[in-house]
């Protein structure tokens, strides 16, 4: 299959759904949402050209187990809102202090630190409003408990026991010698948790049985860690024009990364091993899972 075409088609679906959501806000007048400064900052970051890997993974997992229709879309969009909030906050001076994201000045550089912080806060909150308003309503005649359980999983992946927890250990490890378990914790929580839950949410909503969900969980764990290792590698040898941000920042901040601990070649070997194992975990799946397999290899070979 043409994975780039698939990713682009799914990205367009996600972007359209996000556009519709933000055009239908309760205090929207002719497309203008009050307060305008906050809404502009949100749109600036949300539509800055992201790959939409997390929502696309949720959609691909949903379809891989026979899911039909757009039931997954509120969750897919919510996952992107959470991811975008995390990027806005990561770029702030108190954290990574980055000036560019996706080739454009970062949110706080354009709108100021206060609006940057609040735009991130708003996106995180909107993610849960989106999941509860639309999904719980969609399940009102069915299994509302399923939707609630999925929202619980997303919350855990995004919070103290997931992305935020990983980010804290990442910050506290800067400039220090870290061991492998610490590095593994950072990567599986800071990045891997949200990727894993994207796969699990899609599979669960698509009707996966316990055995299938276990296989997709192994898949999600593998590609989640591989994705961050690939990021580590790109920060060393990627191209600024493709990444849309400066390379070498991990080294200058003495961040805990796979290349800093194992070197580039070993990092590449481990990333490939993780993707190979992830694809093997869903070997018994049919052609419906081909997009998942191709996304896994894309994660390994991507240049941005």
What can you tell me about this protein's structure?
The chain is an all-alpha fold. The protein has a single domain, classed as Farnesyl Diphosphate Synthase. It has 15 helices and four strands. It has helices spanning about 5-25, 35-45, 55-65, 75-90, 105-110, 115-140, 145-160, 165-175, 180-205, 210-235, 240-245, 250, 260, 265-280, 290-300; strands at about 30, 30-35, 100, 105. The strands form two sheets. Strands 1-2 form a two-stranded antiparallel sheet. β1 (about 30) and β2 (about 30-35) form a beta hairpin. α10 runs antiparallel to α14 and α10 packs parallel to α15 (about 290-300). The chain is globular and about 50 Å long. The two termini are about 20 Å apart.
Low-confidence stretches: none
Radius of gyration, in angstroms, nearest whole number: 19 Å
Structural class of the secondary structure composition?
Answer: mainly alpha
How are strands sequenced across the largest beta sheet? 1-2
| N/C terminus separation | 20 Å
Q: So, CATH architecture?
A: Orthogonal Bundle
CATH class: Mainly Alpha
How much strand?
Answer: under 5%
- Indicate how many domains the architecture comprises: 1
Q: What series of H and E elements makes up the topology?
A: HEEHHHEEHHHHHHHHHHH
Label the overall shape: globular
Topology:
Elements: H1 3-23, E1 28-29, E2 32-33, H2 36-46, H3 53-64, H4 73-90, E3 100-101, E4 104-105, H5 107-111, H6 113-138, H7 144-158, H8 163-173, H9 180-205, H10 210-237, H11 240-243, H12 249-252, H13 258-262, H14 264-281, H15 290-301
Antiparallel strand pairs: 1-2, 3-4
């Amino acid at each position: 299959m043409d994975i780039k075409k698939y990713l682009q088609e799914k990205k367009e679906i996600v972007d359209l759904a996000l556009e519709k959501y933000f055009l239908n806000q309760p205090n929207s007048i002719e497309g203008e949402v009050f307060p305008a400064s906050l809404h502009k900052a949100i749109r600036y970051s949300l539509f800055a050209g992201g790959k939409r890997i997390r929502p696309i993974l949720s959609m691909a997992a949903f379809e891989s187990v026979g899911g039909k229709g757009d039931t997954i879309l509120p969750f897919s969009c919510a996952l992107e809102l959470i991811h975008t909030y995390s990027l806005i906050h990561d770029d702030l001076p108190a954290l990574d202090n980055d000036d560019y994201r996706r080739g454009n000045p970062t949110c706080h550089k354009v709108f100021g630190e206060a609006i940057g912080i609040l735009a991130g806060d708003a996106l995180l909150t909107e993610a849960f409003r989106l999941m509860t308003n639309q999904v719980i309503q969609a399940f009102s005649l069915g299994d509302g408990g399923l939707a609630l359980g999925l929202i619980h999983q997303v919350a855990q992946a995004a919070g103290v026991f997931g992305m935020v927890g990983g980010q804290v250990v990442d910050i506290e490890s800067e400039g220090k010698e870290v061991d492998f378990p610490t590095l593994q914790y950072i990567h599986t929580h800071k990045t891997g948790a949200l990727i894993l839950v994207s796969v699990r949410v899609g599979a669960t909503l698509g009707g996966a049985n316990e055995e299938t969900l276990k296989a997709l969980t192994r898949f999600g764990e593998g590609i989640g860690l591989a994705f961050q290792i690939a990021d580590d590698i790109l920060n060393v040898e990627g191209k600024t024009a493709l990444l849309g941000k400066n390379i070498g920042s991990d080294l200058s901040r003495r961040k805990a990364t796979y290349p800093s601990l194992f070197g580039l070649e070993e990092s590449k070997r481990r990333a490939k091993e993780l993707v190979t194992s992830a694809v093997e975990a869903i070997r018994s799946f049919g052609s419906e899972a081909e997009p998942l397999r191709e996304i896994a290899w894309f994660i390994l070979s991507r240049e941005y």
